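DM from R.C. (forwarded with permission)

"hey, sorry to bug you on a friday — could you get me a structure for this? deadline for the figure draft is monday and I only need the backbone to look sensible"
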Amino acid sequence: MNINLHLTNTTELRAEGYIAGDQLFAEVRWGFPDPTTRRGDGSLWGTPQAMRRLAELAVQAAVQAEEEAAWHARGARAAAEQGSRVA
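My reply, with the result:
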């Protein structure tokens, strides 16, 4: 399976849980507010356990991205302070 999904702050996300036969499923649907961008609409579904694991990994990735941004900001600030001391 290959999934390539780019979410932005304007991507509309919707969640739903349902029973099909004797199976439980969780689904996340996405779309864009601009109706001319329909090509990006879609959904991702799976068992509740699989979707919870995916959510955990998404949160982990978001935290790592924020930590990386903070690390870079600290480095840039330190470099700027070092540069101002030298001048």
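R.C.: lifesaver. The beta strands are 12-20, 23-31, 42-46.
me: no worries. The first strand starts at residue 12 and ends at 20.
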